[in-house]
């Protein structure tokens, strides 16, 4: 298998799912002195931040594609 320097979107998706599952395990199963509601709030906050970062990253890559395409046209 030859590495061409790009990361597929499937791999990125699998990394995000793995991170989400690990976070869930650490918060819910790992045992903590916090109450269940505090742990759920933290987990939801963490997932929202992860989704926001994913949207911001995709927006930046879309803008980069537009810049590259506009340079090719001229």
Broad structural category? mainly alpha
Shape: elongated
Number of strands: 0
Number of domains: 1
Query: Regions with pLDDT < 50 over 5+ consecutive residues?
Result: none
Residue share in helix: over 70%
Assembly annotation: single chain
Mind summarizing the main beta sheet?
none
Terminal-residue CA separation:
37 Å
**Secondary-structure element string:** HH
Describe the model.
With about 70 residues, the chain is mainly α. The chain has one domain. Helices cover about 80% and strands about 0% of the residues. The chain contains 2 helices and no strands. The protein has helices at about 10-30, 35-74. Helix 1 (about 10-30) packs antiparallel against helix 2 (about 35-74). The longest helix is centred in the last third of the chain and has 38 residues, at about 35-74. It starts with 8 loop residues before the first helix and ends with a helix. The model has no long low-confidence stretch (mean pLDDT about 65).
